[in-house]
Amino acid sequence: MKNLQKLHKENFFERVYTITKKIPHGKVTTYGAIAKSIGSANASRMVGWALNNTSFNETYIPAHRVVNRIGMLTGKHHFRHETLMQELLESEGVKVTNDKIVDFKNLFWDPSKELI
DNA sequence: CGTCTGACGCACG
DNA sequence: GCGTGCGCCAGAC
């Protein structure tokens, strides 16, 4: 059914937002992990694209807790200020060096554990 | 309707 | 171990 497909598309954004908002304080996750948890393991690029739209979303979404698979802050240029992403992370106790999260492996939060 | 783009990820050399 | 290239899906033009 067409409506169902349309609903699915809408849920793509919804799920990305929902998962992102569930990221625990002081934890981080990856675009790929989010994509996988919403059923589209290869749609990691879409996750970043969806997060870019969070700027226009009134709801607060901690997009700064989402980085790429190696823990690098590749999306910092999309924040109001390039340093904002790092500042937000560090304010939560996440150390960042050279745009890279320190001890990323230990701070990684797996979205699939949340049973969306 | 073809083509390009993107806050990624992976295979390959 | 690093650089390059390609696939991925959805939207813009």
Feature tags:
disordered N terminus, 4 strands, 116 residues, 5 helices, two-stranded parallel sheet, DNA-binding, globular, mainly alpha, two-stranded antiparallel sheet
Instruction: Tally the beta strands.
Output: 4
Rg from C-alpha positions? 14 Å
Strand content: 5-15%
Taking all residues together, what is the mean pLDDT?
A: 86
Distance between the terminal alpha carbons, to the nearest Å? 23 Å
Provide a compact summary of the structure.
Helices cover 42% and strands 7% of the residues. It binds a DNA duplex (13 and 13 nucleotides) through α2, α3 and β2.
Description of the structure:
The protein has 116 residues and is mainly alpha-helical. It is 42% helix and 7% strand. The chain contains 5 helices and 4 strands. Strand 3 and strand 4 form a beta hairpin. The longest helix has 21 residues, at 2-22. It starts with a helix and ends in a 9-residue tail after the last helix. Mean pLDDT is 86; it is low at 1-7. It binds a DNA duplex (13 and 13 nucleotides) through residues 9, 12, 30-32, 35, 40-52, 63, 66-69, 73-79, 85.
SSE layout:
Layout: H1 2-22, E1 29-30, H2 31-37, H3 44-52, E2 66-67, H4 84-91, E3 96-97, E4 100-101, H5 104-107
Parallel strand pairs: 1-2
Antiparallel strand pairs: 3-4
Helix pairs in contact: 2-3
The chain binds a DNA duplex (13 and 13 nucleotides) through residues 9, 12, 30-32, 35, 40-52, 63, 66-69, 73-79, 85.
